[in-house]
Amino acid sequence: MAPQRKDEPLWPQKMFALEMRARREAAGLSRNRLAEALGCTPQWLAKVETYDKTPSEALADDLDTYFKAGGAFHRLWEEIIDARKRGLMPSGFRRLIDAEKGTTGISFYEPMLIPGLFQTEEYARLMFSAGHRPDRIEELVAIRLERQAIFLKENPPWAFLLIREAVIRDLLPDVRLGQCKRLLDLMSLSKISIQIIPKSARVFHPTGFQVLNFDKDADVAYMEGSDGNGRLLTEPGVVRRLAVLFNVIRSDALPAEETENLIRTIMEDE
């Protein structure tokens, strides 16, 4: 798919505007009359119809009620929001997020950073602060926090995290305490296992990766890349080798109790 031009409206935004205009004209309403009925300004409706402004959820709901549209405008609004979020992320990472929604288990190896599903809001904001506008930072943080909802589902996936000791020790002081608490809280959940790879371990694999399991579909893997440009890997042999590598690395990790004690020690060193 060709990249979206900056001045080109998202497809669902265009459909929203076209549908609003079509229903308004079919009802014989001017923008002024419709704006008066909805309690907004005709200038606002004009900007939505000409793609200068993204419609709000409130406008979508008001249009559904006024035109008895059965939720059509709200569904288009949801598509707009989803398309905007997807447009903020590299294509490979979008595929990972889609895969996360249906996974039954994820095994993480991370030598450099706290993985997104385990991050605090403060840590995520710090990560995105380099190279992004303030408004873009807030959108990216919101997307990251929304992804973490998979741990709150009625039947959440299993999650196994192997993380190097240096990743936690090197956390900046203003995020270290909260991030350590977040890891301890996650460790208390029945389906989440976190183990630290101590600095003495002879583990030299330099790139983070994930292996995702599914009930009915084939397992996949994700290999990290700079600036979020990682790759989703589907070739069965590659996925199997990464699963084996994860277990090899795990043999050098601290048990859960020792991991918890080390995290608490790092917190006390604050």
Q: What is the overall number of helices?
A: 12
What's the order of the H and E elements? HHHHHHEHHEHHEEEEHH
Low-confidence stretches: 1-6
CATH class of the largest domain: Alpha Beta
Radius of gyration: 23 Å
CATH architecture of the largest domain: 2-Layer Sandwich
Beta-strand portion reads 5-15%
Report the strand count: 6
Strand order of the largest sheet: 3-2-1-4-5-6
Provide a brief overview of the structure.
This protein is α/β, with parallel strands linked by helices and 270 residues long.
Summarize the SSE layout with pairings:
Layout: H1 11-26, H2 31-38, H3 42-49, H4 57-67, H5 72-87, H6 91-100, E1 105-110, H7 121-128, H8 134-147, E2 158-164, H9 165-169, H10 173-187, E3 192-197, E4 209-213, E5 220-223, E6 231-233, H11 236-250, H12 256-268
Parallel strand pairs: 1-2, 2-3
Antiparallel strand pairs: 1-4, 4-5, 5-6
Question: Would you kindly provide a written description of the structure presented here, covering whatever features stand out?
Answer:
By secondary structure, this protein is α/β, with parallel strands linked by helices. It folds into two domains: 76 residues, lambda repressor-like DNA-binding domains (434 Repressor (Amino-terminal Domain), Orthogonal Bundle); 151 residues, 2-Layer Sandwich (Endonuclease, Chain A). Helices cover 51% and strands 11% of the residues. It contains twelve helices and six strands. The protein has a six-stranded mixed β-sheet, sandwiched between helices. The longest helix is centred in the first third of the chain and has 16 residues. The protein is elongated. The N terminus is likely disordered.
